[in-house]
Amino acid sequence: MSTLLTPPQAQMDSSANVGGTASASEEHQLTRVLVADGNSTVRKILRHTFASLGWEMIEAEDGEAALKLASERPFPHAILLDLGLTKISSYEVLRRLKEDIQYRLIPVVALTSFDSNEEKMKAVEAGADEFLTKPVNRAELTVRLRSLVRMHRFNQELIGAESVAFALARAVASKDGYSNSHIEEVANYAQQFGEALNLDPAELKIIKYGAILHNVGKIAIPDSVLEKTGGLTPREKALFQQHPRVGCDICAPLKPLKPILPIIRHHKEHWDGTGYPDGLHGDDIPLGAQIVGIVDAYVAMTSDRPWRAAIDAKTAVSKLRGLTARGIHNPELAERFIQCLEAKFPELRNSEQESELGFQADS
Questions:
Q1: Second-level CATH architecture of 9-19+160-348
Q2: Nearest alpha carbon to residue 283 among 266, 260, 264, 259
Q3: Which residues pair with 34 in a beta bridge?
Q4: Above pLDDT 90, what percent of the chain?
Q5: Exposure string over 212-238, b if 16+ CB within 10 A, otherwise e
Q6: DSSP secondary structure code for residue 310 in this structure
Q7: Residue 165 Cα distances to 25, 209, 292, angstroms
Q8: Half-sphere exposure of 22 (CA within 13 A, CB side)
Q9: What DSSP state is assigned to residue 339?
Q10: Cα distances (Å, whole numbers) of residue 96 to 55, 64, 110, 223, 254
């Protein structure tokens, strides 16, 4: 069976280049580190260290100043926090930062002159991400900070990408005549089908986001085409079939969404090669795109639309088998999805035999 992610490389080059440009600009963003330490000599040493790296250092000599500076925009990418701060204790600073959703993801390295397991545990419980004992090895500190800053930036990108993704997906669902629950339903079915296929957690996350965003390119399709109840003209059909490409163009600049681009682009490919936009055939279609394509077909049939009512699950399963027989879907994969539906909804079964695969009954 095809891999989850890999489409023909040449077909993805233009999208990858768009994402690469955004990535390059991120790498040159100035790194800002807040150092909260009552010892001016320590701050001076670290100031020179960070200056040699081209980083900006913000200084605080007590807990009160540390909290104030940590909350000022632009937020620091990392915080070095001595555990002996005055005015407000270092542990209280840690707790307040980690309890606030705005600052929770800023990595904090706790510094202390005492190699005490009890103190380390107390700092970790308060929210410290790393722990270093003074005198700090500057090379080790630099390596740790680089790693934490990279992770912080990735998390920030992911949060931003998720916000944009969900906003776009909901806008498209509304434009396409679906209810607000449609996105979640497609995502849940796709993720649970992936679980039934024993995909690993990373693949399941890609499947979920691919299912959420697979139709995002429809934002560029005129309402007159999306809402048309009769057959599309050749021009309208060609326009409609651009939405997978458009979806890739929209999501490519959001670096954390790069792994789901093959799902967005190829969820309308057909097993017999008659789909779009690239006419992929059989297992050349990425597995994630096949999964989302099958799930989307079923959920679309069982959802109300402005121009037609939903059909019942049993009729939808029959129609899904008909589409598969015509060459639209992978026969093996479509049948396994139907087995999952039969396990979830026993009334769909044609026999007493239990399926080996199944969805969670409470989804």
A1: Orthogonal Bundle (1.10)
A2: 266
A3: 58, 79
A4: 44
A5: bbbbbbbbebeeebbeeeeeeeeebee
A6: P
A7: 21, 8, 16
A8: 18
A9: H
A10: 26, 11, 15, 48, 31
In this prediction, residue 2 carries a pLDDT of: 45
Contact 293, 268 (CB under 8 A): yes
Rounded to whole angstroms, how far apart are CA atoms 194 and 6? 17
Strand order in the sheet with 56-60: 56-60, 32-36, 78-82, 108-112, 130-133
Rounded CA-CA distance 283/296 in Å is 19
Name the nearest CA neighbour of 178 among 301, 341, 290.
301
Report the topology of domain 31-136.
Rossmann fold (3.40.50)
Residues in contact with 68: Cβ distance below 8 Å, sequence separation at least 6, in sequence order: 60
DSSP category for residue 62: S
Question: Peptide bond preceding 277: is omega within 30 degrees of 0, i.e. cis?
Answer: yes
- Answer for the pair 55, 31: CB distance below 8 angstroms, yes or no: yes
Reported as type and span, the H/E element at residue 53 is: helix 40-53
Every domain of the chain and the residues it spans: 9-19+160-348, 31-136
Q: How far apart, in whole angstroms, are the C-alpha atoms of residue 89 and residue 121?
A: 16
* pLDDT single digits (tens) 143-171: 888 888 777 776 666 666 667 777 777 78
Cα dist. 231→59, 136, 200, 227, 270 in Å?
66, 71, 41, 11, 20
Statement: the pTM of the whole predicted model exceeds 0.90 = no
Q: What is the CA 88 to chain-centroid distance, rounded? A: 37
User: Using one digit for the tens of pLDDT, what is the confidence trace for 34-93?
Assistant: 999 999 999 998 999 899 889 999 999 999 999 999 988 888 989 999 999 999 999 999
